[in-house]
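Design review, sub-item: ligand-bound model
Attendees: FS, YL, KQ
YL presented the inputs for the SN-glycerol-1-phosphate complex:
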Amino acid sequence: MLPDEGLLNYLLDQSFGCRHITLIDPGKQSAEIATRRAIAAIESGASMIFVGGSTDTPDEVVHGTCKSIQEALELQIFAASQDPLSDENKWRIPVVLFPGGAHALSPAADGITFMMLMNSKSRKFLIGEQLRGAPYLEKFGVEPIPTGYVVFSPGGKVGEVGDAELIDEGQEDTVYAYALTAKMFGFKVLYLEAGSGASTQVDVSSIESARQVEELCLVVGGGIRSGEQAARAAKAGANWIVTGTLTEDASSMEELKQRVSEIVSAIQSSSS
Ligand code: 1GP
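KQ shared the predicted structure:
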């Protein structure tokens, strides 16, 4: 559900400090489970939901998940509006597509990270998928968020499928050049990705190098599983921390809530 200030303003607003995005992969769970997880994550302090991840999820599966999450949010907003003690704005949380390509799209989403995989060696991920997706997004009015996407070692599946020239620790100049290039292209967001389920997160020096380009909103994800790891990225300058695996491998909703709360309180205290 769109917040009152609109998607881009909400995303770029730095007055809240570092915030958390829960990534839901519709290819890995039913729409019903995905929705329960998204609602539990928001209850625990997540400020945005990304839907996407897998490279081979059909449109209708992605759409079913987005629709189901949006319907659940509408219900929560309605319930909160009937209760004078509860704040309905808490449920105005954007559901944003995080696509693996031009196939994983849905008109039910509030927006999409419209990405260039900047360190891909393949035209397909630099501009090809975007050309296929753009007319669809225009037709259905899904708001594109201009995003540069850079994949770091170990990179995981996205590094492999996206044919990325992975960035290693110690390549601060390269990271700075990518960040400047992203700014010069007019991207609003730079997403530093270590790959879903990565054994190591994006290193602090790389985040600090990207942070030198102050105009960019920095999203950092991949391999973040604890509050301590999330805090490290937040301190280095991340505006948003994405976690996916953390919520998906939680053994119960209680565990999921506990894990998300830990991330949220760690990043808030290290960025305020
Ligand atoms: C993947 O950065 C995200 O695009 C999340 O990674 O699954 O490791 O949290 P994890």
